[in-house]
Structure formats: C-alpha cells, structure tokens
Amino acid sequence: MEMPTDRPLFPPDSATWRVNQEPALLLAGGRALLMQLAHPGVAAGVDEHSDYRHRPLRRLARTLQLTMAISFGTRAQALAAAQRINTTHRRVRGRGYTAMDPELLLWVHATLIDSALVAYRTFVGPLSRHDEEGYYQEATVIGPLLGIPSTRYPSDLESFQRYLRDMLEGDQLRVDDRARALAGYVLRPRLRLVPGLAYWPVEVLTAGLLPERLRRAYRLRWGRRERLGFTVMQRTLPKLMAVVPRYVRRVPPARRGARAWARAAGHG
C-alpha cells in the first residue's frame, strides 16, 4: 500500500517534530558546518563546487530550507527536496572525492543529527534517552532518500555515538588551512554594513558547542571572556524559550506541516 503524499513523513507527535520545530537549532548551524568541513572530502567539495567564499550563508540557508521540507513538508514535498539535494550532489566530484560517497554523506548527516540534539539539550531542555533514540531512528529513515544506504547507519543511538567518537578521535578528520579558511567565512561572513563585533556571539556559540578537539584544531578563541559569554547564553536562552508560547516558538514549516497533517487526517 502506497503512503499518502499529502501528509508529512512523520506525525506531529514524533521525535523529529519535537526537536526540529525549535528555532534554537539554528544556533548549532555553525557547529554542524565546521564539523562537516573537518572532513577533507567535504571541504574539497565545498571549496571547489560552491560560492562559499562569497555567499557562505547561502549553503546553510539552502540546507535548512531543504531539511525543513523533508521534516515537515508533505511526502511529495519531502521527496522533491531530497531529489534537489541528490541532483546537486551528483555534480560535485573532484580529485579523490565525490559528494555521493556514502561515507561523506553519512558524516554530513551525522553532524546534523548530533548538532540538533546538542542544540536542543543546550538551549531548550533535556531529552529522554527514549526521545533521543526515536529521533535518531527517524533520521535513519530519511537517510536513504539522500543516497545513504540504511545499512551504513549504526544500528542504534549508542552505536551512533560510538561512530561519532571514532570519527573525532581517528584520522579521517583533518582541519587544514583550507578548512580553517572556509570556517572563517562561516563565522564571519562578508556582509555589507555588518560590523565585525556583531559576529562575536556566533563565534562563541560555535566554539562552545564544538567538540574540544575541533575547537582547538580550528584555533577558535576560548578564553575567559568566551567561556563566560557562552555560559550566559546557555543559562539565559532556555529561560527565554520556556516563556515563549509553543505555537510562536514553532518554526513556520512545522506550522504548515501541522495543518497539512490535520487536513489529510480529516480527509481520511
């Protein structure tokens, strides 16, 4: 029996919705991008096949738009978004790498999964192990749409966390001069009329959320002032989130997705 195309992939009470509907996940965008760029294959693809140096935020915005479409759009919209991602990736290849390499795709997806969970725990509130496991398992359903064979995913959250540790402690990641240069465009994009000081919170948030090994490898500042700034944001933002009405706090794609689910359920 074919799944309906007029409703989202996951229901509104799923772990995917609970986590991805939070605007606070945007705060970990820099973390995810720098983790991705630590892989030389990803850094090469980004550097040689995108306008990253001139429009670094475009890639993040495009990734967020398509991710939201997959999470909250109808099944038809999710499949179309996945197809757009795959079409772009098929064109990205160079000396020693291709964007359709399952290992690279898995690493990129892993950084998004892990960064979403880290951002939620840090700026929204705690998640039970059950919810984190559910979020991970739902993410593995999305993976094959993006060209990642389901067999490539670790079987459960514990195995996934072990995969992340192995990647961070192994030799597959290497932050070289190219990765550091690209990271500079993430943390301090060349935007007209925006003073350099305005980027300080972005740098602090990214440095505070990154695994220590990568923070050191990227040579991000992490002195007393940065640690204090991160602590203040870490303590303040969850309190602000708690007083914002849930409907207002939900990102617009999630609101549209909820209406699409309700319409589909009503027609059922």
Could you characterize the architecture of this molecule?
By secondary structure, this protein is mainly α. It has one domain. Helices cover about 65% and strands about 0% of the residues. The chain has 14 helices and two strands; from the N terminus they run αααααββααααααααα. The protein has a two-stranded antiparallel ribbon. Helix 2 runs antiparallel to helix 6 (about 100-125), helix 4 (about 55-70) packs antiparallel against helix 5 (about 75-90) and helix 4 (about 55-70) packs parallel to helix 14 (about 250-265). The model has no long low-confidence stretch (mean pLDDT about 90).
Largest sheet: 2 strands, antiparallel
The helix content, as a percent range, equals: 55-70%
Distance between the termini: 15 Å
CA radius of gyration is 19 Å
Strand order of the largest sheet: 1-2
What is the helix tally? 14
- Secondary-structure element series: HHHHHEEHHHHHHHHH
User: What gross morphology would you assign?
Assistant: globular
Short description:
By secondary structure, the protein is mostly helical.
Question: What keyword list fits this structure?
Answer:
268 residues; mainly alpha; two-stranded antiparallel ribbon; 14 helices; 2 strands; 1% strand
